[in-house]
């Protein structure tokens, strides 16, 4: 009976049992004919079985195995070691390439023209580009690039007929990995922030230059989701808070109730969701919730173009679709509290209510600052001072907050209009 490489039957199997089985297998298949190689490999394997290591240490240990492993044994050995390596936490890694400063920033909104390109595929990304084009026209080339990314991934993705939990998980990982490779080959580089999907897909290069495009966590996640839609393996958007106070997005395939695959576009790797998250954070967003996220981005585009009533309409629709997320509440309140436009006064109490809701959902410095400005616009400068001071307690070095305190204390006091 031919000897087979040990396989991991259960994720609950201990590291010690797995590594002991591997070391016994090495002896049994005769690797010990090269005594120094076998001794070193088994020593490393047994060391791994006793102690836990960081990703960097795993790299060193697998490098040792690469140097001493006989041909034909390396792939099986590394596969077992890789299965035991700890996954990074989502939002903790940013992988190159990184965009050059000249390629970052918002795209310009060109004049609309009659489209001549009809997308070959369907998916959430194409819907989002259509929505974005209403506020800031997205050229045909962006749609074509999204099609090209999908075609490239489909060409490389191995076909699978058996649709069980294992094959679905493997397929999700393959989609994540291949999409990452395709994006890099097509000139995409990480640029934080990249504000909209259109910003990500438009060309940043001149004629005759190598293609250059940019992405960040949310815009790339939307591309991955579009690829997944086209491959009949729908993925969901996930949002989590970072220690910096910023938000981070990645994609998730829910394979089974207790089996999921998370893929972080910024790190271009599988990842694990942090523990102890509250509310919607760390959960798979529904399509309505994802479109709410996109509507908030489009509202920001309307603000840039001073189409404030349209921005308010998008913020309100975003709130209706996803009332648990503070972003649209905060955007609406900030717009009304800081921008001068016709009919603004009628929104003052709606803005205050939205600011209160945002601060209750996420009590961070930005939302408290927005609440202070909403109070000031409503004429309640005492509460404005209290909220601004609370923001300063969280971010004591923010000079804008300190300036607002002085304005609220002035005689007469000033609100936040024109103080963006």
Distance between the termini: 75 Å
Largest beta-sheet characterization: 4 strands, antiparallel
Strand order, sheet with most strands: 3-4-5-6
Beta-strand residue fraction = 5-15%
| Series of secondary-structure elements, N-terminal to C-terminal | HHHHHHHEHEHEEEEHHHHHHH
The overall average pLDDT, rounded, is 86
Structural class by secondary-structure content: alpha+beta
State the shape: globular
Task: Kindly state the percentage of residues in helix.
Answer: 40-55%
Parts with pLDDT < 50 across at least 5 consecutive residues: 1-18, 25-37, 48-54
Radius of gyration: 26 Å
Total helical segments: 16
Using DSSP, what is the number of strands? Answer: 6
Structure in a nutshell:
The protein has 16 helices and 6 strands. By secondary structure, the chain is α+β, with helices and mostly antiparallel strands.
Would you kindly provide a written description of the structure presented here, covering whatever features stand out?
This protein has 420 residues and is an alpha+beta fold. It has 16 helices and six strands. The protein has helices spanning 15-28, 35-50, 55-68, 74-84, 124-135, 140-156, 165-185, 197-201, 217-230, 287-304, 308-321, 327-338, 348-361, 365-377, 381-394, 399-409, and strands at residues 188-190, 213-215, 236-241, 247-256, 259-264, 269-271. The strands form two sheets. It has a four-stranded antiparallel beta sheet with strand order 3-4-5-6, covered by helices on one side. It has a two-stranded parallel sheet with strand order 1-2. The relative contact order is 0.07.
């Amino acid at each position: 009976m031919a000897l087979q490489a040990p396989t991991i039957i259960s994720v609950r199997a201990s590291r010690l049992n797995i590594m002991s089985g591997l070391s016994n297998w090495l002896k049994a298949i005769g690797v010990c004919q090269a005594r120094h190689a076998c001794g070193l490999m088994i020593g490393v394997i047994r060391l791994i079985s006793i102690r836990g290591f960081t990703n960097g240490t795993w790299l060193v240990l697998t490098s040792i195995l690469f140097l001493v492993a006989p041909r034909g044994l390396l792939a099986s050995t590394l596969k077992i070691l890789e299965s035991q390596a700890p996954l990074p936490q989502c939002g903790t890694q940013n992988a190159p390439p990184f965009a050059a400063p000249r390629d970052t920033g918002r795209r310009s909104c060109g004049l609309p023209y009659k489209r001549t390109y009809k997308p070959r595929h369907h998916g959430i990304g194409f819907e989002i580009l259509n929505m974005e084009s209403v506020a800031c026209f997205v050229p045909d080339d962006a749609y074509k690039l999204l099609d090209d990314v999908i075609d490239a991934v489909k060409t490389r993705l191995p076909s699978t007929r058996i649709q069980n939990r294992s094959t679905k998980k493997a397929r999700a990982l393959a989609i994540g990995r291949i999409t990452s490779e395709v994006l890099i080959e097509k000139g995409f580089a990480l640029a934080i922030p990249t504000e909209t999907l259109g910003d990500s897909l438009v060309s940043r290069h001149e004629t005759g230059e190598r293609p250059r495009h940019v992405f960040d966590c949310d815009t790339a996640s939307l591309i991955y989701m579009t690829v997944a839609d086209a491959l009949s393996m729908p993925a969901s958007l996930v949002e989590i808070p970072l220690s910096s106070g910023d938000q981070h997005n990645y994609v998730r395939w829910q394979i089974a109730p207790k089996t999921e695959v998370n893929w972080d576009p910024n790190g271009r790797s599988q990842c694990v969701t942090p523990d102890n998250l509250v509310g919607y954070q760390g959960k798979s967003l529904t399509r309505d919730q994802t479109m709410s996220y996109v509507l908030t981005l489009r509202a920001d585009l309307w603000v840039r173009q001073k189409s404030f009533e349209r921005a308010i309409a998008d913020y309100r629709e975003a709130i209706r679709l996803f009332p648990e997320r503070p972003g649209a509440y905060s955007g609406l309140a900030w717009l009304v509290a800081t921008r001068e436009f016709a009919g603004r006064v009628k929104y003052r109490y709606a803005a205050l209510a939205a600011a209160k809701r945002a601060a209750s959902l996420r009590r961070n410095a930005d939302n408290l600052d927005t609440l202070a400005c909403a109070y000031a616009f409503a004429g309640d400068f005492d509460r404005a001072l209290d909220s601004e001071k609370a923001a300063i307690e969280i971010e004591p070095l923010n000079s804008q907050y300190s300036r607002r305190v002085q304005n609220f204390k002035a005689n007469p006091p000033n609100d936040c209009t024109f103080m963006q």
